[in-house]
Design goal:
It is built from one helix and six strands. It is mainly beta. It has a single domain, classed as SH3 type barrels. A hairpin with a 5-residue loop joins strand 1 and strand 2.
């Protein structure tokens, strides 16, 4: 089980291929991370936490970085909240 409380601002987020996806700015409830310094445009974006598979000194995702970048800013499913 992933403990989102182990994630803190400034941690690097990497895809399954080891490539960078961004740095954690904050954890938004139980469903998404707010990332900054993203490789696509250097801006801030939301990423669903459902793709996190491991937390070490980095946040590791279950998909390659390029795929993770396509998941940025997807809306939350209807009725889901971020708390």
């Amino acid at each position: 089980m992933i403990a989102l409380s182990d994630i803190h601002a400034g941690m690097s987020v990497v895809g399954a291929d080891g490539h960078p996806v961004g740095k954690v700015r904050s954890v938004e409830g139980a469903t998404r991370l707010l990332l900054e310094d993203t490789p696509t445009d250097g801006d801030t974006h939301y990423l669903p936490t459902s793709h996190i598979v491991k937390i070490t000194d980095q946040v590791h995702l279950d998909c390659p970085a390029a795929t993770a970048c396509t998941l940025f800013d997807q809306d939350l499913p209807a009725g889901e909240n971020t708390t």
